[in-house]
Amino acid sequence: MGAAIQEWTVTRPWAEPHCALGEGPFYEAETDSLRLVDIKKKQILYFRDVVAAENRDAAAAGPEVVQLDVCPTVTADIDGVDPRERILVGVKHGLATLDVKGGQGKYELLVPFHEPSNERLRSNDGYADPLGRFLLGSMTDFGQGPFQPEGGLFLFTADSARELIPGLTIPNGMGWSPDLRTMYFTHSPTRELFALDYDPAPGGGGGGDMSRRRVHYRHTSGPAEPDGLRVDAEGHVWQAFYGEGMVLRIDGRSGAVLGRVRIPTRNATCVQFVGEDLFVTTAADDGHDADAESKRLGGAIFRVHVGVRGMDLFKFKM
């Protein structure tokens, strides 16, 4: 028999912002805030006093909401820039900077995916890499019919965008091993978590190259699709699964399942570490077969103490 996996069960939400599609949780250390996006509502949400709050089981207050006129899909910090002034945001047509201080949802497109822009597509998940570049996926936008393999994974700098992997349907979560030599990447509809060799050396000689893509984990035990992810300090991947109400901890070397977090709503979308706590974002559950609890808690945020810290997320270099 295989070794028993570690289990965590969360029964109550930490916050209930009723997201339509909550995604991209990010811990902003400067303000002790958890920020995330609601892609469908075109919002960025800030929850304050994540660590400082006396009651760790519930958010100290409801979110501060920044309303945009375009869908934000992910956020990141910019190297050398106070996130209270400006942050990086994935938007429909590419990579943008958001004027946080102005507070009016004003953004500036930095680099588009394509010239001219393809109205069928929008951005999805994205992450700054160890060299300060930004990897951002594109996919079929809402209202454009069934999702098609017309998206891709793009590599952005401050003034360019280059497609690395074409023909993707829903490119999703990414992360790096603690030694920075392995990159993880999710493709949701094929239920695959990939690993790639990554060269962390800066400058010439192949710095930042990604190669030897292989399947690290394929989900075959249920109907869920892998969504966003984070990597912990021990090198293991915490992968959210959309459709089964869970997050799996997957061994970063063997691909074996080491642990499972269960939440009371089906559509887990992404995770974020704050200290040794794991935050889980979710989306609304409007499925015809959804039970009452999953419907009620769809779009909530969950918090669970897992006893391990996460890898710090990298910053984008302008």
From TrEMBL:
Residues annotated as transmembrane: none
Cofactor binding note from Swiss-Prot or TrEMBL: Binds 1 divalent metal cation per subunit.
Keywords, ordered alphabetically: Metal-binding, Zinc
Family matches, as InterPro entries: 6-blade_b-propeller_TolB-like, SGL, SMP-30
Family, per entry: Belongs to the SMP-30/CGR1 family.
Keyword Zinc: yes
Residues that hold a divalent metal cation according to the record: 23, 172, 227
Record-level Gene Ontology MF annotations: calcium ion binding; gluconolactonase activity
UniProt binding sites for substrate: 122, 124
Keyword flag Zinc: yes
Ranges for domain SMP-30/Gluconolactonase/LRE-like region: 21-283
Protein name: SMP-30/Gluconolactonase/LRE-like region domain-containing protein
Residues forming the catalytic site: 227
Cofactor(s) the record lists: Zn(2+)
